[in-house]
Amino acid sequence: MTAKVYIHQFSSLSTAGDNAGYLEAIFADKRLPLPWIDDFAGKRIRFGQIDERYLISEKTIKERFPHVLNNLTLRWGRGNRLAAALAIPLVENVNHLIEKYGADRVALVIGASVAGMTETERFFFEGKKDSAYRDTDLEMYNPARALKAIFKLKGPVYTISTACTSSTKAMISAARLIHSGAVDAAICGGLDAKSLFTIAGFESLGAVSSGLTQPFGEHRDGINLGEGGALFILDKDSSPYELAGWGESSDAYHISSPEPEANAVQKAIKHALQMSEMVAPDFVCAHGTGTRKNDEMEALAIHNLMPNASVCSTKTITGHTLGGAGALCAVAALLALDAQKFPGHLIEDNVDPLIATIKLNAKATTGAVTSVLCNSFAFGGNNAVIVIKKKTNADH
Q1: With 0-12 CB in 10 A as exposed, 13-18 as middle and 19+ as buried, what is 255?
Q2: Which residues of 175-189 are buried (b: 16+ CB within 10 A; e: fewer)?
Q3: Which residues are bridge partners to 245 per DSSP?
């Protein structure tokens, strides 16, 4: 029999703070505006920057985890400091998993799209004259390398980099490892830290909002980027929360625009729902970027398949954290399931009357939340969807 996969613990960081800060933010009556930063050219933009107090220092990392001193390949720039900060709340339970199953039976799968860029950006600005610079600092594997060292893992460890679906695909990949019996448990999720190069890339596409992003809003004009992410412990042993289903597809339509009719997206959603043995979820945590084309396409898919589900985008709270976006969406799902509340869709705009009708809650409401579907879509028409279910009394 194929093993079910359960979520046992999670840790998140974003501009909203840690799990507690994120919980408060998604159920608030209105959002806090994202901070202003200067981009590469000195232009002021909104960006979901993490407060420095949440990012532990290299000195603290080495004091807390002295065994990492033996690994000379590790650097502790902003990206790996974020990874270490996410790891700390999970260390005790990961140690228990290693004792229970063995270090070779616990996997680590991380999604990232910026990763090593945060470690090398300073060298670029300095003309790469620093003798400490190494080509390996640019590797997408850097966060996984750091986490493997911190957790002392010996099982499968790898990074998935598919832009904005990276962390959702990492969760799916980790679940498949458990499903197949290759491992008994896994740490998974994803993260991305602030990178001015990445910001410049999105600006070159004309995708960055001039103010605060307004997903599904009538006057939306693009995204707000951000940094952050989340890690999860998955286990074959039961817990109240099951990673019950997933679906993946590819549009094969355009390098940066979604297929307007959402055909491939709907295939991914249908597969996730079928695997979860559901017709529709109670709540959809939307990809909801605030770009014209993404929101039109996603609203159509939700309208066609899940018209009665409550919908919100949490990117109004965190910014679009790229490789960390799907993981933060999954955290919002778990917080909603635990609190038995539907998060509000916190925008200051009217909902676009020209998009397909979906059930966007203007504010958080209390209600029975037993299942959540999380959407993630990326460049190249790369789509990934997961369903998280909470056990009901009938399941016990």
Answers
A1: exposed
A2: bebbbeeebbbbbbb
A3: 387
Tens digit of each residue's pLDDT (9 = 90 or more) over 153-193: 999 999 999 999 999 999 999 999 999 999 999 999 999 99
Residues shown for the chain: 396
Q: Which residues contact 303 (CB under 8 A, 6 or more apart)?
A: 356, 357, 358
pTM above 0.90, yes or no: yes
Collect all residues with Cβ–Cβ distance below 8 Å to 95 and sequence separation of at least 6. Answer: none
Cβ neighbours for 325, distance < 8 A, ≥ 6 positions apart: 164, 167, 287, 315, 376
Name the pairing type of β-strands 310-312 and 371-378: unpaired
On whether the CB atoms of residues 327 and 83 are closer than 8 A, the answer is no
Strands (E), the chain: 6-13, 36-38, 44-48, 106-111, 157-160, 185-192, 225-226, 228-235, 241-250, 283-285, 310-312, 341-342, 359-360, 365-366, 371-378, 382-390
CB atoms closer than 10 angstroms to residue 129: 7
Q: Compute the distance between CA of residue 224 and CA of residue 329 in angstroms, rounded to an integer.
A: 16
Mean pLDDT of the chain: 94
Contact 189, 230 (CB under 8 A): yes
Please, is 271 exposed, middle or buried when counting C-beta atoms within 10 Å of its C-beta (0-12, 13-18, 19+)? middle
* End-to-end alpha carbon distance in the chain: 19
